[in-house]
Write a structure and sequence with these properties.
Order of helices and strands: EEEEEEEEEEEEE
Shape: elongated
Largest sheet: 8 strands, mixed
Mean pLDDT: 91
CATH superfamily: Immunoglobulins
Structural class: mainly beta
Number of strands: 13
Oligomer: single chain
Number of helices: 0
CATH architecture: Sandwich
CATH class: Mainly Beta
Radius of gyration: 19 Å
Number of domains: 1
């Protein structure tokens, strides 16, 4: 599997606007991959992230749907895409459209995001959920949101 994540900017403002991301999964294997689950992962340098730091949504069936996030080991994870997972035939590619925004209280500083695709894989008579593709980390910085500029009245001299 080849997994790519596009659209991650270099700087985000805490409490800022939505940002659109595209997560692409390509099945380069010779078999059909069923129940493929792409997961977005967020981490921040020297920070513990809480689930209220990021709002993440995925576009399914023409509608934006909230992606529940889980916090573990100071990172956030969220499974994106259909609840039953993706089914990709050999050579098939699919792209998921996501959007994210950082909460006003999101920790400032260096963050990273990456995507991992998990799939059920037979192993020693059982099935395990195994990572089958991962993106390179996309690094970005979270900064405080600038206050809106006030209009200054025009004075003629």
């Amino acid at each position: 599997m080849v997994v790519t994540l596009r659209g991650v900017r270099s700087v985000y403002a805490a409490g800022g606007r939505w940002s659109t991301l595209r997560l692409t999964v390509h099945n380069g294997t010779r078999t059909v991959c069923r129940r493929l689950r792409p997961v977005l992962v967020y981490g921040a340098r020297n920070r513990t992230l809480r689930v209220d730091a990021v709002r993440l949504e995925t576009r399914l069936g023409g509608h934006w749907r909230a992606v529940p996030l889980s916090a573990a080991l100071g990172e956030l994870t969220g499974a994106v895409g259909p609840a039953a997972g993706l089914r990709l035939h050999s050579g098939q590619t699919t792209t998921l459209t996501l959007r994210m925004r950082l909460a006003r209280g999101a920790p400032h500083g260096e963050w990273l995001s990456l995507a991992v695709a998990y799939a059920p894989v037979p192993h020693q008579g059982t099935t395990v959920i195994w990572p089958v593709g991962v993106t390179n980390p996309a690094y970005f910085r979270v900064v405080p949101k600038r206050p809106a500029a006030r209009a200054t009245p025009f004075h003629s001299g």
